[in-house]
Design brief:
With about 260 residues, the chain is α/β, with parallel strands linked by helices. The protein has one domain. It is about 45% helix and about 15% strand. It is built from eight helices and seven strands. Strands 1-7-6-2-5-3-4 form a seven-stranded mixed β-sheet. Strand 3, helix 4 and strand 4 form a beta-alpha-beta unit.
Length: about 260
């Protein structure tokens, strides 16, 4: 009984310690967004390094051990990734110079939504018919030389498989003739299995899920960077189907650590 109480106390202590650190980090992000926001309009070159620093610190506080395998394309591109959790954004944002396209609900999350908007995140309402207008906005960002990352599954999964890709947003890469840069994320526990608490799916509540992550042990996150792919005359539907097949096969290799 004493050992159980001791373990429970350690978990609570770890949770409170990380909550304090995370609160201070969120506050730092808010201050940076307010103080530097106007400056970023003129000095946008400094925006991405600062965003990546903030995401890296966020991952450290959550005790995420992120390991990147492979090198991304050294030019602007449209990035795509499988989608397991809200953790995907700090994990990928910590290591790659990208702006995210996220579901509209994230914009309403406490603090996080405001910070996401300050970091240049674009939002889309699922099932609202916005894909056409968002495609035009994405094409404009790509034309301006920015890297835009979106999750073509349109929702999160448990990380075991890849859902059917929605094809419409691939039209921006086709229109601008820019390469696609696919990446994959895989969350592992101490036994090297898929982490049971990493997925944010179904009816999960954000605060409950965040607390589970904060009180947990170290989580290993493998990120696999795949070779870039040019549209090469394919339409959006064909390009989406081809990328879905490539990433599904690569996800199996990532889970087996065959990379």
């Amino acid at each position: 009984m004493a050992s159980i109480e001791s373990a429970s106390f350690k978990i609570r202590l770890r949770l409170y310690y990380r909550i304090v650190r995370l609160s201070l980090h969120l506050l730092a992000g808010a201050v940076l967004a307010v103080v530097c926001g106007a400056a970023f309009v003129q000095y946008r070159i400094y925006q991405q390094p600062l965003i990546r620093w903030w995401h890296r610190r966020f991952c450290e506080i959550l005790n995420l051990d992120v390991r990147v395998h492979g090198e991304p394309l050294d030019q602007h591109a449209m990035w795509i990734s499988n989608h397991v959790s809200w953790l995907d954004i700090p994990v990928l944002g910590a290591h790659f110079p990208v702006y995210f396209l996220s579901k509209a609900e994230v914009a309403n999350w406490p603090v996080v939504g405001w910070l996401a908007r300050a970091a240049g995140t674009l939002f889309i309402q699922r099932g609202s018919g916005e894909a056409g207008s968002v495609e035009i906005r994405l094409a404009g960002h790509l034309r301006a030389g920015r890297n835009i990352l979106f999750f073509p599954e349109g929702t999160t999964t448990n990380g075991e498989k890849i859902k059917r890709f929605f094809h419409k947003l691939f039209g921006a890469a086709v229109k601008e003739e820019v390469p696609l840069q696919p990446v994959l994320v895989c969350y592992r526990d101490e036994h090297d299995d898929l982490h049971p608490h990493a997925p944010f799916i179904g009816d999960d509540l954000f605060m409950d899920h965040a607390i589970d992550i904060l009180k947990g042990e170290r989580m290993v996150v493998d990120v696999l960077v795949l070779p870039s792919v040019m549209p090469d005359g394919r339409d959006a539907r064909k390009l989406a189907r081809d990328m879905e097949a490539v990433m599904l096969e690569a996800l199996g290799r990532l889970q087996r650590r065959d990379f």
